[in-house]
Design a protein that fits this description.
heterodimer; A: alpha+beta; Heat Shock Protein 90; 7-stranded antiparallel β-sheet; globular; B: alpha/beta; Transcription Regulator spoIIAA; two-stranded parallel ribbon; 4 helices
Chain lengths: ~280, ~120
């Protein structure tokens, strides 16, 4: 029970990226997840996005898997290792997983290259949640597809999506990240001069485009997550905010993120913490 | 082109042939998909009523709703947009977009489906 309560308390906590600084060592960059005691979808998509940027720039990278057995297995189960293999990035994340262990993984780490990818991945996630809750499925579809479409529309880079059920707290987490232009660069045409300003502008619905129908993705996603007792973590460059309803809690950023990362949390309606053991 | 491949629904009844009708598939998202759907309606839509049949729709995204409203009521200047069988969340997205675009008086939503749990 104590384990359940601890997980519930940190459900809305910022993922934190300490230790994930990409450092240079012996001629190559190293992305170090080895000391992570807690791995969220956000960490997985962040690692995949950074790895993709290195692969595109032809800069050698080594990714160190989480050292903890559960976290190490979780990263493999969520196919981070396979994504890194596909990018030609050196790593020690496991690449073979037992399918029996994957019942809580809504969506392993998957790339988003286009609007069609965004739609297909969101449909996949929504279909898996629909037997549990039509409402949560609809919200998840809307949130995942809007965030993934933002990557296709604005980032100028390949993004990554992952989603996870947390049955022990009756919740779902999903994350979308890209190592693309970032919010400050995107919103500089609207006067954003810092990452912090850009994050606040994005949450309030400002878009780089003039069309009054634009810029609604993040505010709508936040509103829908909040309606299901959820929250949103938004990180871009050196600024991060955890938001729920009108509340905005700035989070310290140990490691600047070269792009944009969103992690959403929502509760499954009618579900409360149960006794299902899990890892991650 | 990829978005077009998802557009399998076509008007089949006499009423649909007379009134420009967009029949939505089960899941809709993204502005390019809304563009592709509206581009299938030929001719000048000025002052015309355009129908949107959401009978098959399960989930729709805010960006799709916003683009649909913009393309039909602002860009192509239709007289009205009549939406039937819309799930409640999608109906809300349409209403929000129409309000932002100042065309709410030309959006008619009928028979909202109840919100599921």
């Amino acid at each position: 029970m104590e384990r359940v309560e601890r997980r519930g308390t940190r459900l809305h906590a910022a993922p934190g990226f300490s230790g994930m600084a990409c450092r240079a060592a012996r001629g190559l960059h190293v992305l170090d997840l080895s000391t992570r005691s807690w791995v969220d979808p956000a960490h997985l998509v962040a690692a995949a996005s950074v790895a993709h940027a290195h692969a595109v720039a032809d800069v050698p990278l080594r990714v160190l898997s989480p050292r903890g057995a559960d976290q190490h297995r979780y990263a493999g189960r969520m196919h981070l290792g396979r994504v890194l293999d596909a990018l030609g990035v050196e790593h020690d994340v496991p690449t073979s997983v037992r399918e029996l262990d994957r019942r809580e993984d809504l969506l392993e780490v998957r790339p988003v290259r286009s609007e069609d990818d965004a739609r297909a991945l969101a449909e996949l996630v929504a279909a898996k949640v629909r037997p549990e809750s039509c409402l949560a499925s609809d919200v998840l579809y809307s949130c995942v597809v809007e965030m993934a479409l933002n990557v296709a529309d604005h980032a100028g880079a390949v993004g990554y999506v992952a989603a996870q059920t947390l049955p022990q707290v009756g919740a779902i987490k999903f994350a979308v990240a890209d190592a693309g232009a970032g919010l400050q660069a995107t919103l500089s045409v609207r006067g954003a001069t810092t990452d912090g300003e850009a994050v606040q502008m994005a949450l309030s619905g400002r878009s780089r485009l003039d069309d009054p129908g634009r810029g609604t993705g993040l505010p709508t996603t936040l509103r829908e997550l909040t309606a299901l007792e959820g929250s949103m973590f938004l990180l871009s460059g050196t600024a991060a905010v955890t938001a729920a309803g009108a509340r905005r809690l700035p989070d310290p950023v140990d490691v600047p993120f070269p792009g944009t990362l969103v992690q959403g949390v929502l509760r499954l309606p009618g579900r409360r913490p149960g006794a299902v053991a899990t890892e991650g | 082109m990829a978005a077009r491949s998802r557009l399998t629904a076509v008007p089949t009844s006499d009423r649909e042939r007379k009134m420009p009708t967009v029949v939505l598939p089960s899941m809709v998202a993204g502005r390019d998909l809304a563009d592709a759907l509206v581009e299938r309606i030929p001719g000048d839509l000025t002052a015309t009523e355009v129908a949107v049949d959401c009978r098959r729709l399960v989930s729709g995204s805010p960006s799709f709703a916003a683009q649909l409203v913009w393309r039909v009521l602002v860009d192509r200047r239709a007289g009205s947009l009549a939406v039937t069988h819309a799930p409640a969340a999608f109906a809300a997205y349409l209403e929000q977009a129409a309000t932002r675009l100042e065309v709410a008086d030309r959006l008619r939503i009928r028979a909202k489906a109840p919100v599921g749990t």
